[in-house]
Write a structure and sequence with these properties.
alpha+beta, Dynein axonemal heavy chain 2/5/8 coiled-coil domain-containing protein, DYH2-5-8_CC
Amino acid sequence: MLFNHLVESSVNILLQTLKDNLKPTELTGLDKENYPCLYPESKQAKNNKGNRCWECMPCCYWNLFIFFNQRCIEALVKSKRQSLDAIKRRMQAASKHTDPDAKSPALFKADIVLEIPSIVMKPSLDDIQQALNRTVQIMLKTTQVGQRKHQMVNVYEWEQHGIIHQPPILVAEEGKVLPPLAPKSLYKIVSEHKDVTKVVITLSSVVSSLKMDATKILEEMDQFKELWNQDPNTKVKEFMESKPLLSDFDAQIKYYQLLETQIEELPGSYHIGPVEYLTDRIKEALVTETKAWKQSFGKALAEKASADMEEIFLFIDNLNKRLARGIKDLDDVRSSMAALSEIRESEIRIDMTIGPIEESFAMMNRYGLVYSSSDAERVDGLTYAWHKLHAQAGTVASHLIQIQPTFKSDLLDGVEKFKAMVTTFVNEYNDK
């Protein structure tokens, strides 16, 4: 920071050394500050920078002073230009690629995120361009002012900068002296230099020019737009109205499982020139959407399987109670036989329902879908309850076979008694 002031001091020492070796007659005008021209009113001095003739001894000394000042400014310009050039080379070095082991790391990192109903880049290329533009201006403004010892000063400007770069006093055609122009600050000299300006102009649009590549990436993500453009509840409702089979549920869930796999296989990042867009957030959001879709179909499947299971359990419980009654008379026999008949008639239907119910819950487990824990416990006992009912039905059927002779004999005796009673009644009626 003190380099320029050190150079200015060294130049003053050099000039003093030169003056020390001059003859007294040659020192005219060299003892004054800023080495004023000896002939400022001469024709050669008019409209010259600083109103100097550039031929007298003070002008020669001042010219040497300016020479070193100009070299310092050129060094600053070169430094700024090289710094900006380094950024420009990095910005223009790479095109789109997805190699995570690339030798040149990205200058900027951002995210691709899902903001329903769109996929966007955060920050966007425009935001990054604005940030780059601000960075360039900050770099240039380092030649403007800074704080030193609680005072705002320009640490790069020489103390004589205002005098060195004072524009010439202009005279109008009528001979009137025009108001003096303010000298250009070091910041303006550096920032308006043609080499610096050329790089700044290039950098001002280097990121925005990559929008086409960014659009292609976003279009690639559009293949998943059905995940957020459609409502899961509405689609599942329409799906259930078609009375789907278990295979239809499996096809739907498998479809979203495949989408989830495709999402997880997306590259970890996309390089758009100097910008690396990370896909962690978009992948997480899209996977969440696929899981929501799978869970929506899983919920519908669980509700259907649970309703079918409840119907079977009610059927089994009802028949268990009817078969558990004691057989004391013919009414009990008729009730038991009716229960056995219902079991025989419903056997195929129940067997064809229990299998899909168990497969439904097995499929939900396979895909990691959540369902009621009570249903998980009940489905394990469904087949057992059905087999137990079968066993009880067999026991009741065997018991009916055993008691058949007794009830048959009682029935025949009852019939004979009834016939006798009818005959007696008829005879008595006829006698009257």
